[in-house]
Amino acid sequence: KKYPVFCYNRDEIYDLFERYEKMKRWNGDYDSADRTLAISHAAETRMLGGPHIHEVYIDECQDNQIIDFALILKLFNHADSIFMAGDIAQCIARGSSFRFQDLRALMHQWELDRNPMNHNQQNTIKKFELNVNYRSHKGILNLAASVIELLSDLFPDSIDKLLPERGVVDGPQPFIFKGFR
């Protein structure tokens, strides 16, 4: 429901989802969401073995699904035991619709569920943006910012709203090359 671009096709999309689920069952297949759900259900019925984990650091978190983070949150008592870093512009996972906004909402609800008496307590979830890019020059970053701006205008709820990246090095004006003749 959060993606307005599909508002006229929701029934068709849900029909495709049901066909996909039926096909998986028929073939005995599963996907990464099924795997995470199975682990989550197992964790509810029995203790997960192994050493106690005090902290977790997750890089490239944009390549995971929200359900994966829901499972990870079950293992911890404090939000400040979890550190996640990622860049939504570098998402490589096929079909991913990751947004930090969704992750924040999940973690906020987790905090409320974990400690319902302290919902007036200051939120322990911290977010900060690293918007200075030391690897690309300003021309490349300006081009990328214009693409991100188009995505934001055309699909406003599909990506997080962030400040544009700034470069510290000038460079040549980028151009778009369309093949050989």
UniProtKB/TrEMBL annotation:
InterPro entries: P-loop_NTPase, TRANK1, UvrD-like_ATP-bd. Residues 10-92 form the UvrD-like helicase ATP-binding domain. SUPFAM superfamilies: P-loop containing nucleoside triphosphate hydrolases. Keywords: ATP-binding, Helicase, Hydrolase, Nucleotide-binding. Pfam families: UvrD-helicase. GO terms for molecular function: ATP binding; helicase activity; hydrolase activity. Signal peptide: none annotated. It comes from the Eukaryota. This is UvrD-like helicase ATP-binding domain-containing protein. It comes from Rhizophagus irregularis.
